[in-house]
Amino acid sequence: MISPNATRRIGVVPLPIFVAVIALFDVILPTSVAASLAFNPLLLFATLQTLFLFGTAVVVAFISLKSYLSGGSRTILLLGSGTLAWGFASMVAGWLLGPPGGPNIGVTISNSGALVSSLFYIASATTTMRDSSSRDSKSRKPKLILAYGGAVGFLAALTVFALLGATPAFFVPGAGSTILRQAVVGAGLFLFAASSILFLRLYHDSRSGILFWYSMALALTAIGLAAFYFGRTVGDPIAWTGRIATYLGGIYSLIAVWSAFRGLHSSPTGSPVP
Q1: Which domains does the chain possess?
Q2: Pairwise CA distance, residues 111 & 93, whole Å
Q3: pLDDT digit string (tens) for 15-32?
Q4: Is 268 within 8 Å of 128 (Cβ atoms)?
Q5: What is the C-alpha separation between 166 and 127, in angstroms, rounded?
């Protein structure tokens, strides 16, 4: 049987590989070649977003829900909320990239969802550092409803406003990304990376499985967002490398909360998670 430490060493391997592949494509692929290699069937993209990001997010959110109601860890609550926000936004964006939506609507929802989820993740990391948990079991359910409902409700409202044309443009056909989109993606990228680093630092002190796997999941998502800055066109090899990184990040987040829920490792608060 493979030891947890060996498994974690294996888990680190994809990160430098994704970075190297993106860097290689950035060097060897001129814009004309990247455009000729672009592959972006909307149905396939939407299906992958639903399966690897929304599907894993639902499972993560459910496990986090059970764990939070049982143990009261605010870290788990915020992680579940962030993952649910990211998965929901990714799924909606995937299906609205084509009619009745469009590139601008899909990009608006996806990038905004990334920023919202990154705020939950950075809050989770700072909460972990304060060793915070909710001792009042009666208040856990309202907090859970507020966190999960707030995350999904905000993004659902954003989707409606985007479909009505009431949101600022993130992507202009023929012109590309707007400054607003670049700022939102940059902020989300920074917060994902910062959260990953904070969780990794905490992992070195506690050796908690959830901290390690979530650190890796957030790092992979940050790599996926970073690919946006190097991609030549939608669906080019760099874009797909970034997408695959985020899909693997979804799987890693599932491993993280499952290890916590099963009590295989200590929770971030230092007590076993049921």
Answers
A1: 41-261 (1.20.1070)
A2: 9
A3: 999 999 999 999 998 888
A4: yes
A5: 35
